[in-house]
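Lecture 7 notes: from sequence to structure.

We start with a single chain of 338 residues. Read the sequence below before looking at the structure.
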Amino acid sequence: MKILAIESSCDETAAAIVVDGRRVVANVIASQIAIHAGYFGVVPELASRAHVENINLVIDAALRKARIRFSDIGDKIDAIAYTRGPGLAGSLLVGQVAAQTLSFLCDIPLVDINHLEGHLYAAVLENRAIKPPYLSLIVSGGHTELVVVEDFGRYNFLGGTRDDAAGEAFDKVAKLLHLSYPGGPVIDRLAKEGNPAAVSFPRPYLRGTWDFSFSGLKTAVVNYVKGRTSCDTRDICASFQAAVVETLIVKTVAAAREYGLKQVVIGGGVAANSALRRAFINAGRREGLRVYLPSPALCTDNAAMIAAAAYYKLQKVNVVRNHALTHKIEPGLRLSNW
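Now the structure, written as C-alpha cells:
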C-alpha cells in the first residue's frame, strides 16, 4: 500500500510517500525556522501563510522523488493522509484542504491522523522489531506524554504536560540566555562544553502521577540567572539539560516497570537531543529495556510518520471512498482509539 501523507500542524510543511508503513520513498520538509526566529516562537498567521506558499511545492517534490506524475496519483497512490490535529488551526487547515482536494479529484480514500500518533509510530518506520505493546514517550515543543501503545490504534494515555512541555522549556531558557531559536539544538551544543553538575536545578518528578511539568524548572533557571552579574552559559545549559533529561528518564523507566513493558519508543523533536539519546540507551542497557529512537530526521515534524500511522489505521478502519468533503480539522484533538 502506497500512501501520500501531508503534515502541517505547526511550522513545518511536509509531504511524504511511504510504502506499507515501512519504506520511505520520499520525505520532503519545508522549514519555517527563518521566518519565526526573530520572534523566538511560532507566529500562527505567518505559519499559515508559509504553508499556503509551500504546500504545492512539497507535494510536487515528494511526487518527483517517487517518480510519480500528478496525473498518475489516482493509479499509483492508494490513500491520502493528513494531520487532523492537534496543532494551529490555520496551519492544519492548509494541509486538510490540500489532502481533501487530492482525495476528491483522484477518487482515492482520505484518512485523518492525530499528530501524536505520528510520533508514536515514527520509530516503527525504521525498526521492524517494534511491535505492541510498548511504552512511548512523546517529547516535543508542545507535548510531553507517556502512552502505552497496547496495539496499533489502541492506547492507554498515562500522563502529559501540565504546563510547559520539555521542548517549550528549552526554547524559553534559550531566550532567557540570549541564544538562538529554536532553543533545543543550541542548548544541546553548548551543554557539551559545560558541567551538568555546576548548578543543582530541581527535578520535577511529580511523584504519584505520570504527568510532566517543566515551568518550575524554567523559573529556577530564571532565578539563578537573575541573582548573578555573570555566569557561565555553558554550565547553565548543561545543568538545565541534565535536569530535563533525568526527569524524562526516571519517569519513563518507572512507567515501564509499573506496566511490565520491555520496549520503550521515543518520539518528538526533543528526541533528537544527543544527551537524551545517550541517557535512554544507557538506561535501556541498565534496566533491560529495548529502547528505540527515530533518526533525527524523523524526530521533528514530518509527513512520513503520518503515513506510517495511516497505514496501520487503514488496516483496521474502513475508509469510505469519496468521503473527503466531510473531513474536518481539530486543533485540540486528543489521542483516542480507532
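The chain has two domains: 2-120+299-326, 132-293. Keep this in mind for problem set 3.
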